[in-house]
Amino acid sequence: MDGKASIPSLFLAHGSPMLALDGGAWGKAVAAHGQQLRSLRAILVCSAHWEAPGPFLLTSAEVPGILHDFGGFPEALYALDYPAPGSPAVAEEAVELLGGAGLEARLDLRRPLDHGAWVPLRYLQPEAQVPVVQLSLPRPRTPAQLLAAGRALAPLRDRGVLLLGSGGIVHNLGRLDWEDASEPRPWALAFERWIRDRLAAGDVPALLDWRQAPGAAESVPTSEHLDPLFFALGAAEGSPESLFDGWQLGSLSLASYAFH
Question: Which of 54, 112, 116, 203 has its CA 20 to 30 A from that of 83?
Fold first, then answer.
């Protein structure tokens, strides 16, 4: 992708933190897409793992650092780093754009990047040279609010900024299947297919009302992993391109999309 215009927005599933050590086919697909991205000024990522009360928050440190915000994994995972710089200028632009759309936003100098940001970025931009800004998920929030945030920040795509939502369409840690890890549970497959079909049809009203979809209650017991999809959708609202389709442990979808 040449130049700084028409950068697609992305929704990348990040599954288990263990993907940081071995991304498998998902990692190869994300890396292949990353190689198409050229001359990025910055990446602005909305991750499932930063929920905060009140307004939208944006990391604004020159060097944000990272969080190992998980427990019980191999020591090798805690040794990983992603030393990308931040971009206070992009964070300030985002605050201005959100405010112009009637969405309150503030800068946060202290927040590091969580694993929902740095795990996929290790494959998308492995050299960690592109500045990264992270956007919070307000609490409380609605899908419509996140769609509006994506729309408000869409002009950044023409300024060389990649807008990225990181989460998972199906994410239920309480229903992991350790015996048949490769096959999704029926309710998980039904919900993911419903989302995929509505994305293909551009049926935004149905997507905003996702709780009425088959398998929704089991697939999305809490919404934080699905919510970044609405941010990515609002940032482009074009036809989705599937970047990867796969599963972990029966109830973690790795479905990932680019919106043009």
Answer: 54
Q: Which residues, 6+ apart, have CB-to-CB distance to 171 below 8 Å?
A: 48, 219, 220, 225, 226, 251, 252, 253
Q: Tokens in use for 28?
A: 């190869």
Separation between Cα atoms, residue 124 and residue 211, nearest integer Å: 31
Measured between alpha carbons, how far is 92 from 105 in angstroms, rounded to an integer?
A: 10
Half-sphere exposure of residue 186: CA atoms within 13 angstroms, side-chain side: 0
* Percentages (nearest 5) of helix, strand, coil residues in the chain: 40, 20, 40
Classify domain 9-259 at the CATH superfamily level: LigB-like (3.40.830.10)
Phi and psi at residue 74, to the nearest 5°: -60, 150
Coil vs helix vs strand at 199: helix
DSSP state of 66: B
CB atoms within 10 A of CB 57: 21
Instruction: Report the relative pairing of strands 56-59 and 105-108 from DSSP bridges.
Output: parallel
Provide the whole-model pTM: 0.95
pLDDT value at residue 175: 82
Q: Tell whether the model's pLDDT for residue 98 goes beyond 80.
A: yes
The amino acid that residue 256 corresponds to is S
Phi, psi of 26 (to 5 degrees): -60, -50
Tens digits of residue pLDDT in 217-247: 999 999 999 999 999 999 997 789 999 999 9
| Confidence check: pLDDT of 2 > 70 | no
- Token look-up 């039904």 returns 190
